[in-house]
Amino acid sequence: MGSAQIAQAADTALKALAVQIKLFTGDTEVKLDKDAVTINGSLYVPVRAMGEALGQEVAWDSKNKKVTLRAYPYVAGKYTWTNPPSLGLGLKEGGFSGLYHMPGDPDNVFYTLADRGPNGQITIDKTVNRTFPVQDYVPRFYKIKLEGSSVNILETTKLLLPEGTKGVVSGSRFTTGLSNIASDEKSYDNTGKTLLPLDPDGLDLEGIAYSPTDDTFWMSDEYRPSLIQLKRDGTIISRYVPVGDKAKLANAQIPVIESIPAVYSKRIINRGFEGVTISPDGKFLYASIQSPMAVPDKATGEASRNLRILKMDLATKKLVGEYVYVAEDAKSFVNVSQKDVVISDLQALSDDVLLVDERDKNEGAAAQIKRVYRIDLAKATNILNNAAASGNVEGISDWKALNVTTAPKELVVDLTTLDYPFEKFEGLTVLNKNTLVIANDNDFGVGEYDANGVLKITDKQTQVWVIKVKEMW
Description:
The chain has 4 helices and 35 strands. It has about 475 residues and is mainly beta. The strands form 11 sheets. It has a 5-stranded mixed β-sheet with strand order 18-19-20-21-22, with no helix packed on it. InterPro entries: Cu_amine_oxidase-like_N (IPR012854), Mao_N_sf (IPR036582), Phytase-like_dom (IPR027372).
């Protein structure tokens, strides 16, 4: 730098004066981390404060001396499970049905789980039968790492029955993904003609959470519906079911505890508990039903927008709350059925403040509801001991008449604006106040059966996305 430039810079520096200003976006004041300055009569405001006021992330590249502003929300990374192990019959592992980031783990390490295993539907004599092509499939959870553009499996843990027991179907400590009782959806072999045995310990897992107070995992199950507590090594400790369901699970090897209201046994088949989460302090567990239940009947449930969220005190394992979450109105969208607007996962930000994964059944360009909402149950009415409300959640349209406030919803992100391609957005967790991580269930790549009864395999992928959003707390 020449002497003239130095003199000019010095002169400019002398004219830079700090000023106290108030910066507003709308009616909200923006807090400045540094004072604004005036130079030669022009006002200069810290770029980070300005970017955040405009709802954008500000990134500084010191090497290239470059400032980048990106509008929220945006996709910061996509990771694909490119090499899942084989399960036979051309099928591979897959189906991320939940997602959890454990505090203290690296930002690219997560836990996820798969559901009851590969299953399809085949029509036999005009009846649609549910097939389980891999009959010895064992429900499992994974510890994964996001590297490059790939999902890599660090650990695979298969669920185990309590020590010293053997499953009535598996003949070992492993459980299965088969249906529990005769009123469940029947399980058939790959031909769709041979009925498979019922397994009172069978599980259809959909959500995963972690309790820091006793170092155990909790998982949600669609079958009963039920909540499963288990050790890190996969050993199941207990299964919490609706009142009246214990007698139905004769010969179960898992200790069965009746603690969920009996009305939950009226869940619609394959629409049981989906989301589960635990408050960061480990005090409370929350579980969401996937769809409105058959209360008083299936037609009412399928037409209803009212879903239930339960709250459990983990110190006592007793329920302390039940809340109503109202799903989006399918009539406001095109080719969306109300029965297919569901909750697929939960994530607790604090006591009573949760993120909710709400989605429709469509995918790609046809998808219209792939959303994350923030709710505060402290602002909703606890209806657990309100018989008039809890006994008929699905059939109620006028909550004000019952003096009930449903969970208030605040949109965090709409994935359709990010060209999310998958139907089953089923995993949701957070890294920090600006970062969501989501996963999809690819149904193990199971497609339809052809005219010859041969199962088709799809190329649908399992992916994990990292998404940047505005501050969530």
